[in-house]
Amino acid sequence: DEEYLTDQVTLEIASVNIKTLTSDSGLIQQPEDKDTQSHSDESLSDHKKTCKENGTCSLCLFRAPTISDMLNDEDLLYTVRLKLDPCHPTVKNWRNLASKWGMTYDELCFLEQKPQSPTLEFLLRNSDRTVEQLIDLCKFYKRIDVVKVLLKWVEEEWPKRGNRTYQNDF
Fold first, then answer.
1. Choosing a second label site near 47 at 20 to 30 A (CA), which of 10, 28, 39, 107?
2. How many CB atoms sit inside 10 A of residue 165's CB?
3. pLDDT tens digit sequence for 146-157
4. Helix or strand holding residue 110 (H, E)
5. How far apart are CA 60 and CA 55, in angstroms?
6. Side-chain-facing half-sphere of 160: CA atoms under 13 Å
7. Quick one: pLDDT at residue 69?
8. Backbone angles phi, psi at 57, to 5 degrees
9. How far apart are the first and last CA of the chain?
10. Distance of CA 131 to the CA centre of its chain
11. Contact 94, 122 (CB under 8 A)
12. What share of the chain is helix, strand, coil (3-state, %, to 5)?
């Protein structure tokens, strides 16, 4: 199963036109999913300041979800793992995120040896952090594909779970 996923990712990467991966400044950018709706690069706190519904949209009204909340959504978790588990020299993955949040080299190597997904282990160890913090971390590493998936979940799925408990001023 993992071998198939690795082959699939390799094929997807090999089929990408290299010119689409470079920006004007010459920096490599992550390919974006065409099937997710477009979200801007603003943070959730920036969104609240510019909300067209005067702070009454689904992003503004809910309790800020934590990574622990995110772990309860199998579909989201599966998608995030598919995006962050693969190891490719030019694509930032779970290892970069974990290192940025303070995981040591020995811990990173230990997680790589476990049979469970390293992304899942990383998320479990940071389950008290907010999804907004994870989104900001993904933006830092230019993982806009992951940012889009997380923002879509925050906007569409999280409110369906009845989590509009208070207005939060991100």
1. 28
2. 9
3. 999 999 999 988
4. helix 105-113
5. 5
6. 7
7. 93
8. -75, 175
9. 39
10. 8
11. yes
12. 55, 5, 40
**Distance of alpha carbon 1 from alpha carbon 16, whole angstroms:** 23
Identify the sign of the CA torsion 123, 129, 130, 135. negative
- Residue listed under structure tokens 């806009």: 144
Name 67's Cβ contacts closer than 8 Å, sequence gap at least 6.
123, 126, 127, 128, 129, 130, 131, 134
Stated pTM of the model: 0.61
Identity (one letter) of the amino acid at 7? D
Distance separating alpha carbons of residues 142 and 169, to the nearest angstrom: 25
| Higher-confidence position of 53 and 56 | 53
Q: What value does the CA radius of gyration of the chain take, rounded to a whole number of Å?
A: 17
Q: What letter represents residue 160's amino acid?
A: K
- What pLDDT, in 10s, does the model give residues 94-129? 999 999 999 999 999 988 888 889 999 999 999 999
The yes-or-no verdict on residue 25 having pLDDT over 70 is no
User: How many other β-carbons are positioned within 10 Å of the β-carbon of residue 127?
Assistant: 12
Burial (CB < 10 A; 0-12, 13-18, 19+), residue 104, is exposed
CB-CB contact of 31 with 143 (8 Å)? no
Closest alpha carbon to 127 in 67, 42, 39: 67
